[in-house]
Design brief:
The structure holds two protein chains of two kinds. Chain A contains ten helices and ten strands. By secondary structure, chain A is an alpha/beta fold. The longest helix of chain A has 21 residues. Chain B is mainly α. In chain B, 69% of the residues lie in helices and 0% in strands. In chain B, helix 1 crosses helix 2, helix 2 packs across helix 3 and helix 4 packs antiparallel against helix 5. Chain B is globular. The mean pLDDT of chain B is 93. The chains are: A alpha/beta, B mainly alpha. Chains A and B meet through helix 3 and helix 9 of A and helix 1, helix 5, helix 6, helix 7 and helix 8 of B.
Chain lengths: 279, 115
């Protein structure tokens, strides 16, 4: 049976690749150290496949038809999408997919009353591309991207994301193959992409949220970190932390917070965490 | 809830931006015939003028999804090295002076804290 062998989360802000050196040197060093540590722990866990969760940023679906979750089922994934490569300062990359497991997630999810849309040619913006640049640059690990709606009303709640995460964990454990799976959440922390507070981050919220992860009390986090609280810390962007909550549901206990930077230059509160105990 | 709740999911500009980002030919039309492109997608005069004037406040007041606003500006100003010193910042400074001033003040405070 398949096994979840790692769970981690990181910010995917485009500045982390597109204009990395515009941030203070201290932030650059922290980001380099933390992503290197994530990669070290990922390699130590020896996953066969990364299940990577990210906001879709209105790229794969038009605003009149936004699924809550979408699974990429391709044999091979190619990114970034043309509109994003120059912005992200990235060359095109190719990562092998895992269509068998991806299709299983879609169909087994449906049997468990979880509606998952799917795409055979998913496009990638910063949400998948930036973490791939740092965590899987040599395409060593196969990829199953799962994009989610974090920005088009109605935005799902943290409680719903946690419920989806529990179901996703059950589905992954039910896969009859021997795969070792890492769950990687991307997005957040506080930011308001394109909103009136586009150039602002909420350091107080970010540190509070990361402290909740350090405490490791899932019930407390879900009670305190409401969607309203996320929206107050940056509308339409901070709720990318819903991806982190999906990953949280696959874990137990406290997370290691590897770094936090209130990186206005990168347009986002920027953080990296790894969980040690898996559910 | 937050600013994102103000978007009008039926607004033609939102449909146009979804299409333009995916299509190099439409992006070329943006540079040469924005008014014609807007007409084809059924934009109102107010939507077209808010885009032409690069005005984030009017765009959001009309119901453009906030995520598309900087993308609209990138179609005018270019895509690379989109830092805080870009023309985009100037557009936001004009449209949202209080919020942008607060953000820049925070950035200066963070830099002072680092010494």
């Amino acid at each position: 049976m398949a096994e979840i062998v790692a769970a981690m989360a990181m910010t995917h802000s485009p500045g982390l690749t597109g204009w990395f050196t515009r941030a203070p040197e201290d932030d650059q060093q922290q980001a380099r150290r933390a992503t290197a540590e994530m990669r070290r722990r990922l390699e130590a866990a020896r996953p066969d496949v990364l299940v990577m969760l990210s906001n879709d940023h209105l790229l794969n679906w038009p605003i009149n038809n936004v699924p809550e979750y979408t699974v990429g089922i391709a044999d091979e994934h190619v990114g970034p999408a043309d509109w994003f490569d120059e912005w992200l300062g990235m060359e095109k990359y190719r990562v092998p997919g895992h269509p068998g497991l991806a299709r299983f997630i879609v169909n087994e999810g449906a049997r468990r009353r979880l509606a998952l849309a799917w795409l055979s040619e998913m496009q990638f913006d910063d949400g998948i591309s930036v973490p791939t640049h740092y965590l899987n640059p040599d395409a060593r690990f196969r990829l199953i991207p799962i994009t989610m709606n974090c920005t088009v009303p109605p935005i799902p709640t943290p409680a719903r994301a946690y419920e989806v995460g529990r179901t996703l964990g059950d589905v992954l454990h039910a896969w009859p193959g021997p795969e070792r799976i890492a769950v990687v959440a991307t997005g957040g922390l506080s930011h308001e992409p394109g909103g009136p507070r586009y150039f602002w981050v909420d350091e107080e919220f970010d540190r509070w949220f990361l402290d909740l992860l350090k405490r490791g009390d899932h019930a407390a986090l879900l009670a305190e970190c409401t969607l309203e609280r996320m929206e107050a810390a940056g509308s339409g962007g901070t709720a990318e932390l819903l991806a982190w909550i999906v990953a949280l549901a696959c874990t137990r206990g406290p997370a290691d917070v590897l770094a936090y930077m209130p990186a206005i230059a990168w347009r986002s509160g920027t953080g990296m965490v790894v969980w040690n105990e898996l559910a | 809830m937050g600013n994102v709740e103000r978007c009008d999911k039926t607004l033609p500009t939102n449909a146009m931006m979804y299409a333009v980002r995916k299509d190099a030919a439409l992006r070329a039309r943006w540079r040469t015939d924005l008014e014609g492109l807007a007409r084809e997608f059924g934009l109102s005069r107010a939507e077209y003028e808010a885009i032409r004037d690069k005005d984030p406040r009017r765009l959001m007041d009309l119901g453009v999804h906030q995520y598309y606003v900087p993308q609209i500006l990138r179609l005018f100003f270019g895509n690379a090295q989109n830092s805080n010193s870009s023309e985009t910042l100037e557009c936001y400074r004009r449209a949202f002076p209080a919020e942008t001033a607060q953000a820049l003040e925070l950035q200066a405070r963070l830099e002072r804290r680092r010494g």
